[in-house]
Structures are given as C-alpha cells and as structure tokens.
C-alpha cells in the first residue's frame, strides 16, 4: 500500500482536482493538502464523525449506487487516507474524500475517519486567481 505522501505525489487524480467555496473561489486539492500536511499539528484530527460532515449528502447527490462506475470507485477507495475537510462556521464540508466517506459509512460500518480539518479563512491565500478572459 502507498503511504499518503506517495499517494499525493503519484496520484494524477490530484493534479487537476479542485473545489470551490460559496464565494466562487477555486482551490487546488493538492495545494490545500500540502498546506495541511505542513501544518499537521494544527489541522490533523485522528477521528471526526462522518455524520457531522456533508460527505454522505454530497455523495448521494453526485453519485448513484445504481451506476457501476460510481460503485467501483467508491468500493476501491482507501479509507486509511485522511479526508480534506473545510470548516466554515459550524459546517464541515468535505473537499476531498466523498468516496472514502461513503465506503467507510456504508461498507465498513465506520462512524469516524481521520481528516485534515481546516478553517476556510486559513486557506484564503491559496485561492486561485480567476483566469483572465481574452480581450
């Protein structure tokens, strides 16, 4: 099994994966993970309740258990890797790890996973600049 560091370095999935906040700002999953790892003592949580995040709601909204591709991806997710959770007020939004959350909850019967929990204001410096429209 790959370590989480190897997973981040070798996974092409992270190279272009992004998430957005309610203000429309875009963030690179890879850059936010790297920031969180550099500040692990501050952000890493060994156990957070899956039910307290929005992961299951978003998985069910974005994916389907009737779609074989969605199911295969969820079933092959490695739940040993920490989630990436952005905290805004009392809301815990999973920026990366929907498939891990769903697998942990529905297949492994887990109630908690490890995660990097980062307040939204702590990653503002990582927001990507909007691309300029050609004139």
Describe the protein in words.
With 135 residues, this protein is an alpha+beta fold. It has a domain at 51-126. 34% of the residues lie in helices and 24% in strands. The protein is built from six helices and six strands. The protein has helices at 4-10, 29-38, 40-43, 55-62, 68-75, 98-106; strands at 18-20, 26-28, 44-49, 83-88, 91-96, 112-119. The strands form two sheets. It has a four-stranded mixed beta sheet. Strands 1-2 form a two-stranded antiparallel sheet. Helix 4 (55-62) crosses helix 6 (98-106). The longest helix is centred in the N-terminal third of the chain and has 10 residues, at 29-38. The model has no long low-confidence stretch (mean pLDDT 88).
Q: Top keywords for this entry?
A:
alpha+beta; 6 strands; single chain; globular
Helix and strand arrangement:
Layout: H1 4-10, E1 18-20, E2 26-28, H2 29-38, H3 40-43, E3 44-49, H4 55-62, H5 68-75, E4 83-88, E5 91-96, H6 98-106, E6 112-119
Parallel strand pairs: 4-6
Antiparallel strand pairs: 1-2, 3-6, 4-5
Helix pairs in contact: 4-6
Straight-line distance between termini: 49 Å
Count of DSSP-assigned helices: 6
Ranges where pLDDT stays below 50 over 5 or more residues in a row are none
Share of helix, binned = 25-40%
* Beta-strand residue percentage: 15-25%
Radius of gyration: 15 Å
Largest sheet: 4 strands, mixed
């Amino acid at each position: 099994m790959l370590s989480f560091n190897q997973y981040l370095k070798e996974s092409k999935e992270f190279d272009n994966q992004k998430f957005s906040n309610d203000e429309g700002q875009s963030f690179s999953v890879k850059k936010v993970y790297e920031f969180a790892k550099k500040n692990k003592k501050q952000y890493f949580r060994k156990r957070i309740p899956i039910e307290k995040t929005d992961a299951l709601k978003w998985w069910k909204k974005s994916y389907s258990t009737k779609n074989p591709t969605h199911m295969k991806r969820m079933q092959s997710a490695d739940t040993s890797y920490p989630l990436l959770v952005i905290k805004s007020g009392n809301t815990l939004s999973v920026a990366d790890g929907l498939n891990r959350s769903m697998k942990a909850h529905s297949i492994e019967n887990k109630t908690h996973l490890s995660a990097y929990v980062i307040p939204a204001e702590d990653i503002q410096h990582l927001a990507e600049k909007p691309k300029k429209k050609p004139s």
